[in-house]
Design goal:
By secondary structure, the chain is of the alpha+beta class. The protein is 21% helix and 18% strand. The chain contains 12 helices and 20 strands. Strands 3, 4, 15, 16, 17, 18, 19 and 20 form an 8-stranded mixed beta sheet that branches. It has a 3-stranded antiparallel beta sheet with strand order 1-2-5, with no helix packed on it. It has a 3-stranded antiparallel beta sheet with strand order 7-6-8, with no helix packed on it.
Length: 621
């Protein structure tokens, strides 16, 4: 991870400082460059703080020579790109890596207590110390952000002088120098004191700076700052309300990740040579027109036969949502999930496929009727799968699981034909719930009342977080969704004991809609360790029957009961009901919904009303 070179050192011909001469500040795993330290995020290295640069080709912030290309046509079409790229590696073989920029620029000196821009301390080259005291400089603990994704420096000068003038020309015109110190009396914001030596303003604490309207009361609005794109990018006025955040807060950066499974006919990699051509190929409806295009593009033999190209084009058109000229993103993403659900139900036998096949899904050999009393049907053994997870954008202040397109910040100033992504390989077990029994259970008044409490609490939290409550995406909470979600969690806990995988190595993929009622639990690793066979073995009907019964029985009791099962709301904003870290919560990497919208009472029932439990049969002797 290296800071970007100064723009003046490069020329139009591509000259400039060699990448290997730039200092490395630290290392991160490739997966972290998608999920934790992606474009626009803040990363702390020793005593310094940096922001990961954007994917601006002109700024060489991401060296594509060290970013292997990966393909997943279904996801690429959804996100409007041609292909994906792995992040640069951070190992010793890497010559460049990810580029970062220093942020925030406001620093304080632990000796003289001065609060200045980093460069104004005159630090020696390659060091972050005060040029006068030789003491380590401390990056500002506070930054400001808006819901559109912009990020900026905390306005210390305006905070001290209680000024509404946001112009940079006004800062320092009082003739004084900002200072920051801690009184040491408490660990609260009241003990962090900011002052100015001009004498025109009294020393003030940081208490109250986190109020939603704290900066708005000073007349300060977002100016559209995007420091991850560099100072060469002009700042455009935004005008939204600013919020104060701690530099290490999770609200500063949340990734918007979208994923897809490789399923037939796209899962044998035969289509890879046609990346970048699909949008043009889709314009042709006849075999003759497609053949003419392939002749014009490929001088030699076609890498894919005409029959295969036509089959792939037909599959792609079939997956497009019907009834709308320009369907919404969520509609198109659901169509992608629908196709996965259909393929998981129908399977893909290994014996009929080539060795390059990336999706193998087979029916178990045992008697599946043993699962009927539990309301479980259609188990499938996913012996081989590939998932591609792409970083579409990121958000600030807004929950990434409930964003609108307007609140997402793109990764680059200009449109790109690729996005950062990672591919994971593994195995899994897919199961469905009996539709007839599920519909009967959903109509229960007690079930509907519990889920409505969760949905209302979730919707209220989403509206509280948003500046414009009317633009908030509706909560996805339904009886079916909460039931499948909680079932996936208890199965992951159960199989982490039986299959030899840690809970953090397993992941859920929910298929919950009016026409879907399934869950896929699978391993999610970026190497071959995800395909050891231990998880697939749990999908055999007899073992699955024991697993579901055991998991539900475990969920019946929690060490935090009766407080847990009688809870009127747990988690942030009361989004969960009977769910805590002692029963059904998982590592966040395993959950699609950030451990929200869970209620084990929908599995087991409550002491007062056991009929709210879908799996009440599993609790009978």
């Amino acid at each position: 991870m290296t800071p970007p070179p100064a723009r003046r050192r490069r020329t139009a011909a591509g000259g400039g400082t060699p990448a290997h001469s730039l200092p490395k500040r630290g290392t991160v795993r490739r997966a972290q460059a998608i999920t934790t330290y992606g474009v626009g995020s803040l990363i702390a290295m020793d005593q310094e703080s940096f922001i990961v640069s954007g994917l601006d080709d002109a700024d060489r912030s991401w060296n594509t020579d060290e970013s292997p290309r990966i393909s997943e046509r279904r996801l690429a079409r959804l996100l409007g790109v041609d292909h994906f790229r792995l992040p640069p590696a951070s190992d010793d073989a890497s010559k460049d890596g990810l580029r970062v920029r220093r942020f925030p620029l406001m620093h304080s000196c632990s000796e003289c207590n001065e609060l200045r821009l980093h460069g104004n301390f005159n630090p020696p080259a390659g060091r972050s110390v005060c040029g006068t005291c030789d003491a380590d400089l401390i990056p500002s603990r506070f930054v400001v952000a808006c819901e559109a994704g912009h990020l900026g420096e905390f306005p210390y000068w305006q905070w001290v002088h209680r000024s509404t003038d946001r112009g940079s020309a006004s800062i320092g015109t009082c003739g004084g120098t900002l200072q920051l110190r801690s009184s040491g009396r408490t660990s609260s914001l009241r003990s962090i004191l900011v002052s100015c030596t001009c004498g025109q303003a009294r020393e003030v604490s940081m208490e109250g700076s986190f109020r939603r309207s704290a900066l708005g009361d000073l007349g300060l609005k977002c100016q559209g700052s995007r420091p991850w794109l560099g100072t060469s990018v002009p700042v455009q006025g935004c005008g939204l309300s600013l919020r104060t955040l701690q530099r290490g807060s999770s609200s500063v950066w949340q990734p918007v990740l979208k994923s897809a499974l490789s399923i037939p006919p796209w899962s044998n990699r035969r289509e890879d040579p046609l990346d970048g051509h699909w949008e043009k190929l889709r314009k042709y409806d006849t075999r003759a027109a497609v053949a003419i295009y392939l002749d014009a593009v490929f001088d030699d033999e076609w890498p894919v036969s005409l029959d295969e190209v036509m089959a792939l084009l037909a599959a792609e058109r079939e997956e497009d949502p019907d009834g709308e000229a320009n369907p919404a993103f969520d509609h198109r993403y659901r169509a992608l999930r629908n196709k996965e659900y259909e393929r998981l139900r129908s399977g893909n036998e290994e014996g009929e496929r080539s060795r390059d096949e990336q999706f193998v899904c087979e029916t178990p050999l045992g008697d599946r009727s043993v699962l009927a009393p539990l309301g479980v049907t259609g188990p499938m053994l996913v012996k081989k799968l590939r998932e591609v997870r792409a970083l579409k954008a990121f958000t600030r202040l807004v929950d990434a699981g409930s964003t609108t397109e307007a609140s997402e910040m793109p990764l680059s100033e200009r449109p790109l034909r690729w996005l950062p992504a990672m591919e994971v390989w593994g195995e899994g077990v897919f199961l469905r719930l009996d539709e007839e029994r599920l519909e009967t259970w959903e109509r229960s008044a007690a079930v509907a009342a519990r889920v409505e409490r969760m949905r209302s609490a979730h919707q209220r939290v989403l509206e509280q977080r948003a500046d414009d409550p009317t633009a908030v995406t509706p909560s996805p909470a339904t009886p079916r969704m909460v039931l499948l979600h909680t079932l996936a969690h208890v199965l992951i806990d159960e199989w982490s004991l039986e299959a030899g995988y840690a809970a953090a190595s397993l992941r859920e993929r929910l298929y919950a809609a009016d026409d879907m009622a399934g869950v896929l639990v699978y391993t999610a690793t970026s190497d071959s360790a995800g395909s050891l066979g231990g998880l697939v073995a749990q999908g055999e009907p007899n073992r699955l029957d024991r697993s579901v019964r055991s998991a539900v029985r475990r969920a019946q009791w929690c060490s935090a009961d009766p407080l847990c099962v009688e809870s009127e709301g747990s988690g942030v904003g009361g989004i969960n009901l009977a769910a805590c870290h002692a029963c059904v919560l998982l590592p966040e990497t395993s959950c699609e919904h950030n451990n929200e919208l869970l209620d084990r009472a929908l599995l087991t029932g409550t002491p007062e009303d056991p009929t709210t439990g879908f799996f009440i049969e599993a609790l009978r002797p």
